[in-house]
Amino acid sequence: MQTQVSILHHDYPTRVRDEVEQRLQGLAKYYERIVVSRALLERQNEDHRVEIVCSVGHGAVLVVDSRENAFSQALDEAFHRMQQLLRRHREKHVDLRRRRGRDGKG
Fold first, then answer.
1. I need a surface site. Which of 34, 56, 90, 105 has the fewest CB within 10 A?
2. Cα separations in angstroms, 40 against 24, 66, 84, 92, 105
3. What are the Cα distances from residue 34, in Å, to 63, 65, 96, 104?
4. In this predicted structure, what is the pLDDT of residue 102?
């Protein structure tokens, strides 16, 4: 899986970039078919914005966006929401494969 961390209009410490990159790699345990994951970190006035985009193959792209006053809260919220999306996506595909197997189609 490829990962990319982009920081716009603000300087975050290097350790922040490393932490975000590690957490992006950790998303693979929620859905193993992630092709590319990107995180965009941005400060807008008093708010911190974190956007996470995961391309999961077959043209599907999952996106979450979080804005909070504290960077750590925005980061935690964005990763929590992406984990939920990845779980839902995986369950949907596993359930679809099970139904196809039962029906004798596919």
1. 105
2. 11, 11, 19, 27, 41
3. 13, 18, 18, 28
4. 61
Provide the residue type at 34 as one letter.
I
- Side-chain half-sphere exposure of 70, counting CA atoms within 13 A: 4
Distance CA 81, CA 90 (A): 14
Phi then psi for 36, rounded to 5 degrees?
-140, 135
Q: Please report the pLDDT score of residue 97 as a whole number.
A: 61
Nearby residues of 25 by Cβ (< 8 Å), 6 or more positions away: 1, 3
**Span between the terminal Cα atoms of the chain, in Å:** 28
What is d(CA 35, CA 31) in angstroms, rounded to the nearest whole number? 10
- d(Cα 87, Cα 31) in Å, to the nearest integer? 7
Instruction: Sketch out the chain's domains with CATH numbers.
Output: 2-103 (3.30.160.100)
- Taking only the tens place, the pLDDT of each residue in 56-94 is 988 899 999 999 999 999 999 999 999 999 999 988 877
Q: What is the pTM of this model?
A: 0.86
